[in-house]
Design brief:
Length: about 325
């Protein structure tokens, strides 16, 4: 009798434990299913509308500035006075200093070991020993952001790279770029810094150089070298888009700077300067440029210096 009672109690306890565990397991799965619903509910569409419903502009770049080139009025500003590394946007200044020096553009320059990137170890299709004209070096540096070409241009300047960088900083001061500083001709150093506001002055100045306009908007370029032909493409895919009318273009990227893009373009019959710095995704700078274009085309003359961005601007 006593043994039967003990067995009954044990079976009852086991069933109770199983029921509790089963109930807990059921609640666990229910909780997971309930938790999963908000994830799907708040998922963003892959092709979100680039313009907010109230007509204001929402950009993904950390710093941005859009100017009317004619009168300099600010159409859009976001953190435009924040100091940031500018990566290969540097090469626009490199090009202006090269052209200001009035050195022979057909003079031959050879890539030397000191032109290699020992800071970041980036590669190049320009092998040490390759000899090109100054014009060809400038083409590759601006259009395809070729670092060895930019380094060679600085090294071949009268007085060498130190004199070249001094000329870059001198030019920046002449243009009123008071918060800009350069330490090399490539932009590989994160100490090359500026603001979106300062860079708008550099873009405006570079647009005055016919050769810079031609080179930076060339979609593709073939170069004959000793071992065959090299094909280069413009790092800004928008120059291959017939819907864009671009006068000057330059991209840039290093980890510290993020993805950057500066342009002069005619949008809705308005010459416009666009500066986009530290965009978080590889294609976000292009997306931001298209958002700006769509915004200006949609609003036309209504976009004035009083246009307000979604986020506070400087």
């Amino acid at each position: 009798m006593r043994r039967n009672l003990i067995l009954t109690v044990a079976v009852t306890a086991a069933l109770a434990t199983f029921a509790v565990n089963a109930d807990a397991k059921t609640r666990y799965h229910v909780k997971l299913r309930h938790a999963a619903k908000p994830v799907h509910a708040v998922a963003k569409p892959r092709h979100a509308d680039p313009v907010a419903t109230d007509g204001r502009l929402a950009l993904k770049s950390t710093s941005a500035l859009v100017l009317d080139q004619k009168d300099g009025s600010v159409l859009y500003s976001k953190n435009a006075s924040e100091l940031r590394p500018i990566a290969s946007i540097t090469k626009l200044m490199t090009a202006m200093v090269v052209l200001d020096a009035d050195q022979p553009m057909e003079a031959r320059i050879t890539v030397e070991p000191e032109d290699m990137d020992l800071l970041r170890g980036s590669g190049s299709r320009l092998a040490v020993g390759t000899t090109l004209s100054r014009r060809e070096m400038l083409q590759l540096a601006l259009m395809s952001s070729e670092n060895r070409a930019a380094a060679a241009l600085g090294r071949a300047y009268p007085g060498g790279i130190r004199a070249f960088v001094a000329a870059m900083n001198r030019k920046a001061r002449q243009l009123g770029m008071t918060r800009t500083h350069f330490v090399d001709s490539t932009g590989l150093h994160s100490e090359n810094v500026s603001t979106a506001r300062d860079l708008s002055k550099m873009v405006r100045a570079s647009h005055r150089y016919a050769l810079i306009r031609v080179i930076t908007t060339t979609p593709e370029y073939e170069l004959a070298v000793n071992h065959g032909t090299l094909e280069y493409r413009n790092t800004n895919a928008l120059v291959r888009n017939p819907g864009w009318h671009i006068g000057v273009s330059k991209t840039g990227f290093i980890n510290e700077a993020g993805h950057c893009l500066v342009m002069q373009a005619k949008i809705a019959q308005r010459p416009t300067i666009i500066v986009l710095l530290d965009s978080w995704g590889k294609n976000s700078r292009l997306g931001d440029a298209n958002r700006i274009r769509k915004w200006l085309e949609a609003n036309g003359p209504a976009v004035t210096a009083q246009a307000k961005p979604i986020l506070p601007h400087s």
